[in-house]
UniProtKB/TrEMBL annotation:
GO terms for molecular function: DNA binding. It comes from Moraxella ovis. Residues 183-360 form the Tyr recombinase domain. One of its GO terms (biological process) is DNA recombination. This is Integrase. Pfam families: Arm-DNA-bind_3 (PF13356), Phage_int_M (PF22022), Phage_integrase (PF00589). SUPFAM superfamilies: DNA breaking-rejoining enzymes (SSF56349). The gene is intA. InterPro entries: CB, DNA_brk_join_enz, Integrase-like_cat_sf, Integrase_catalytic, Integrase_DNA-bd_sf, Integrase_DNA_bind_dom, Integrase_recombinase_N, Phage_int_M.
Length: 372
């Protein structure tokens, strides 16, 4: 702890250095031997730095009283989690070259802190963070939980460095996240799907997330590919969806045949659209896509959290199609946009096209029976 005796004994060095006195107050020691008080605090989400005079003209006790007075006069309250995240992002986003990455960071931090975003940073407990992570794990979003927790831990380390908090509540919470990656692909069996959809229909929901869930089953695409789809990618007259390369995990353009059932769903959505942007919009910001977690929430509310995921529809499609013996394995793999690295140069989005059109029509009939 900084005391008057310790301050008196501080010696100058070739470069200026600072020592913390707590709660944003510090003393700068200049190469000349001059010692100055500095207060750093956050007001209205902005970082401020104010000089409070020189030592010993202003004693440690006086500096602390002055610092408290300044903060009280400014009507300051302890920084909240939302304000901390904003401050952290403002600092680090200057180094990020991708707006998409910035959006992902903001989304993950907003999602994991939703239940305690308005709390003072110092009041957030490990139990609160554990509960938020447990909710994500229950939805089957293990990787998202892991990455969101890692980001939040970085934010709290920043808070400790700036004396907004004394401890990092994210410590050890990663132990509750399953390590077996196979759980990321959690899926029900074909025999369970009719019951799954019967329960989904009876579960109260809001918005278009259930529609997105239905299409995820019909189309067997990756969750991010569906949630971020835009209307200009669809040719509803020809019944085809072209997913651009930049949105594909493989970074290769992919064509999806639209059977009659999913095509009708899309045409109905298109008729009621407000613009030509995202097919599935964020519930509070129509300029952004629906989060994958919104679709997963439908599964969780129906009681299938941890047993089924949106990605699980792809696993189920692969299993049922391969087990049928009706389709070539290469056609199934191409429809799933699985591409081996050594054949990327010969990839053709239309390869096995006629067989894939028939395959997706056959699959849609199966899904329609489940969803009936």
């Amino acid at each position: 702890m900084l005391t008057d005796n310790k301050i008196k004994g501080l010696k100058p060095t070739e470069k200026r250095y600072s020592l913390s006195a707590g709660e944003g107050l510090s003393i700068d020691v200049m190469p000349t031997g001059r010692k100055s008080w500095v207060l750093e605090y956050t007001a209205l989400g902005k970082r401020k730095r104010k000089k409070l005079g020189e030592y010993p003209a202003v004693s440690l006790k006086q500096a602390r009283e002055l610092a408290n007075k300044i903060k009280n006069n400014a009507g300051l309250t302890p920084i909240t989690v939302s304000e901390l995240i904003h401050e952290w992002i403002e600092l680090h986003s200057k180094q990020w070259t991708s707006e998409k990455y910035k959006y992902t960071v903001i989304y993950r931090l907003t999602y994991i802190t939703n239940d305690f975003k308005d709390m003072a940073v110092a009041d957030v407990s490990r139990a609160m963070v554990s509960k938020a992570v447990s909710n994500m794990v229950a939805q089957g979003t293990y990787e998202t939980a892991k990455r969101s927790l890692r980001l939040l831990s970085q934010v709290f380390n920043y808070a400790i460095a700036h004396e907004y908090a004394q401890n990092n509540p994210c410590t050890l919470v990663d132990n509750i996240i399953p390590t077996h990656t196979v759980q990321n692909m959690a899926t029900l069996s074909a025999d369970e799907m009719a019951g799954f959809w019967h329960t989904i229909r009876k579960t109260p929901t809001i918005g278009l997330a259930p529609v997105a869930l239905s299409l995820a089953n019909y189309l067997a695409v990756r969750p991010s590919e569906l949630c971020k789809a835009t209307w200009d990618e669809f040719d509803l007259d020809k019944g085809v969806w072209i997913i651009p390369a930049y949105r594909m995990k493989t970074r290769l353009e992919h064509a999806v045949p639209l059977a009659s059932q999913p095509l009708k769903i899309l045409k109905d959505l298109h008729a009621s659209r407000l613009d030509d942007g995202f097919v599935f919009k964020h519930h509070s910001n129509p300029t952004k896509p629906m989060p994958i977690e919104s679709v997963l929430a439908v599964i969780k509310r129906a009681g299938f959290g941890g047993r089924m995921t949106t990605h699980g529809f792809r696993s189920l499609f692969s299993t049922v199609a391969n087990d049928s013996g009706l389709w070539r394995a290469d056609a199934i793999e191409r429809q799933l946009a699985h591409t081996k690295k050594d054949v990327r140069h010969v990839y053709n989005r239309a390869e096995y096209w006629d067989e894939r059109v028939a395959l997706m029509s056959w699959w849609a009939d199966i899904v329609a029976d489940w969803q009936a």
